[in-house]
Amino acid sequence: MSLYRDTGVVLRVQKLGEADRIITLVTRQHGKVRAVAKGVRRTTSRLGARVEPFAHVDVQFYTGRTLDVITQVQTLDAFGAGIVGDYQRYTAACAVLETADRMSAEEGEPVLRLYLLVTGALRALADGTRDPSLVLDAFLLRALAFAGWSPALAECARCGTPGPHRAFSVQAGGSVCPGCKPPGSASPPLEVLRLMAALADGSWEVAERTDEPARREASGLVAALLQWHLERQLRSLPLVERRKL
């Protein structure tokens, strides 16, 4: 029997048989891992509460024929306690988990940066000190950068001409100059582009000075970019409640 340990965040759980669950985690060393937690749906299980979504855990696995099996779990951070009681934080956190699940499609492929982004976003949401919408959009922009899809915000996405530019094209990959502007491009205020750049860079003082209309428009552009690159809509994203704290 081959044993290994890793730390990870629970992204998703699925029922298996009468008492088991398949747990999907994004881990520090092994990327996405799908493993069976045996007997966790029984009321006597000691592991059940430790392998729920949003949990940051230290896990021991042993390698199975098709799916690995979870043998030990130790809670590192119970992020769910600070998330599930607030609808805005909960829906934002669900979008974080679903995005991480989609962006770590290949099991076993190392995704250390994505793992760190997920734990950072969940910690910020659980603390409740920042606007959940800003935390979510910052996570999504950095996740896009992790995947190699970072939008152009300070230069033209097509020719590289320094900006700022008033036109924005999701299909082109961000801001576009007048000469490269494709039909149907959006024309967001410059404040929206500054907000997106601040979220991508972690400039929270700049981001938190923006008003509600700018935040809503930036959220719409970020969601459109994400769904364009993933080629499908996230189920959790339309449920996210957008309101300024």
UniProtKB/TrEMBL annotation:
UniProt keyword annotations, A-Z: DNA damage, DNA recombination, DNA repair
Entry-linked SUPFAM superfamilies: ArfGap/RecO-like zinc finger, Nucleic acid-binding proteins
One of the protein's GO biological processes: DNA recombination
Keyword DNA damage: yes
Family matches, as InterPro entries: ARFGAP/RecO, DNA_rep/recomb_RecO_N, NA-bd_OB-fold, RecO, RecO_C
Transmembrane stretches, start-end: none
The organism's place on the tree of life at top rank: Bacteria
UniProt entry tagged with the keyword DNA damage: yes
A cellular-component GO term for this protein: bacterial nucleoid
Family that this chain belongs to: Belongs to the RecO family.
PANTHER family in alphabetical order: DNA REPAIR PROTEIN RECO
Annotated function: Involved in DNA repair and RecF pathway recombination.
Listed NCBIfam families: reco (TIGR00613)
Protein name per the record: DNA repair protein RecO
Gene: recO
